[in-house]
Amino acid sequence: MEPKNRLNEVEEKVNDQIARVRRRGGRLKDEVVTLSHGAGGKASAALLDHVFFDIYGNQLLEQSSDSTVVTVEGERLAFSTDGYVVSPIEFPGGSIGELAVNGTVNDLAVAGAEPRYLSVAFILEEGLEIETLRRVVVKLREAADTAGVHIATGDTKVVPKGAADKLYITTSGIGVIPRGRELGFERVAVGDRIIVSGPIADHGMSVMMARGDLAIDAPIESDSREVASLVKKLFDDRIDVHWMRDATRGGLATVMNELAETTELGIALEDEKIPVRPMTRAACDILGIDPLYVANEGTFAAVVAEADATAAVEALRAAGADGAAVIGRVVDKPVASVVLLTGFGGARMVDKLVGDPLPRIC
């Protein structure tokens, strides 16, 4: 069955009323904060909308991005901040140190910025071994050097034993957006292609395996890395990039839903083209977790012009992103929805993450 026919079948099942309900977003019904509120899915969106944005929302926050773009004396800057509470603090392929740098650097990069400066704040639990802290700080410094950013300021606090889980890190970053780089939801159009820079779900599953709570021995490493060099390659090669986002909490499914809802267009993904490493997929299957919802820390999704899709993938692979691939396209219907076209000729709706299958993965 052709993809277009499959989309038509799904369209018949998703009427305008359902689409309108989905675009309105969820209500905040909870009386206490739960781990789901930190997962990046529906509960997170409800908490942000009905507590934070209701109280101090403004035009800058309405950009709905992990980085805010501001203009200062004629220069466009991207500004981002993020907190890291991953458990365990060291895992295959990374630690909370490089995660804190890469996460903020990547938020700046996918806004089109060249990352320049970071601030780093540590919250340390009484009893943390100094050697453990030293390893984390060394990895943090190495990640900053790799990304070409300067650690310009910071802070350190110590809390009593039991008031934290070893250590937490908050990083904020500033990057400069070169003239001519224009990214945004408003640039996304029907016919554009969706690409990813590499395999998905490695980070979340790596952290899950490292916790040792499961009787599964799977050598999965986090994909934690800076993507600023990959983004720069796309622009250096004059790829017509319309929008980008790193697929962290909530995974690829959540960022695709944010794209669909904001643009009021449809996103058609092809299951067989979405790269997932065999070991990662096997671990997800055993645990009953969909890789689409698992967090990534070195993989981003982008919307590019149809004519540039192949060139975009080639550019990313030339820059070291071996798993880069075209995974779907932007369509006009079903509106504000994400559809996954399966290899068996079927199609299913892909909603935002509900609940939190992998708490504290970043």
Descriptive overview:
- This protein has 362 residues and is α+β, with helices and mostly antiparallel strands.
- It has one domain: PurM-like C-terminal domain (Phosphoribosyl-aminoimidazole Synthetase, Chain A, domain 2), CATH 3.90.650.10.
- It is built from 10 helices and 14 strands.
- The chain has helices spanning 3-13, 16-24, 42-56, 96-109, 130-147, 202-210, 228-236, 251-263, 278-287, 309-318; strands at residues 68-72, 75-84, 90-91, 94-95, 114-125, 150-159, 167-176, 193-196, 241-246, 266-270, 300-304, 325-331, 337-341, 347-349.
- The strands form 3 sheets. A 7-stranded mixed sheet has the order 9-11-8-12-10-13-14.
- α4 packs parallel to α5 (130-147).
- It starts with a helix and ends in a 13-residue tail after the last strand.
- Mean pLDDT is 91; it is low at 15-21.
Defining key terms:
alpha+beta, Phosphoribosyl-aminoimidazole Synthetase, Chain A, domain 2, 7-stranded mixed sheet, 10 helices
- Give the strand content: 15-25%
Architecture, CATH level 2?
Alpha-Beta Complex
- Write out the CATH superfamily name: PurM-like C-terminal domain
Helix and strand sequence = HHHEEEEHEHEEEHHEHEHEHEEE
Strand ordering within the main sheet: 9-11-8-12-10-13-14
What is the CATH top level name? Answer: Alpha Beta
Radius of gyration of CA atoms, rounded to a whole number: 20 Å
What is CATH's topology name?
A: Phosphoribosyl-aminoimidazole Synthetase, Chain A, domain 2
* Largest sheet properties: 7 strands, mixed
Can you tell me the overall shape?
globular
Structural class: alpha+beta
Unreliable spans: 15-21
Helical coverage, percent range: 25-40%
InterPro entries: HypE (IPR011854), PurM-like_C_dom (IPR010918), PurM-like_C_sf (IPR036676), PurM-like_N (IPR016188), PurM-like_N_sf (IPR036921)
Family: Belongs to the HypE family.
Protein name: Hydrogenase expression/formation protein HypE
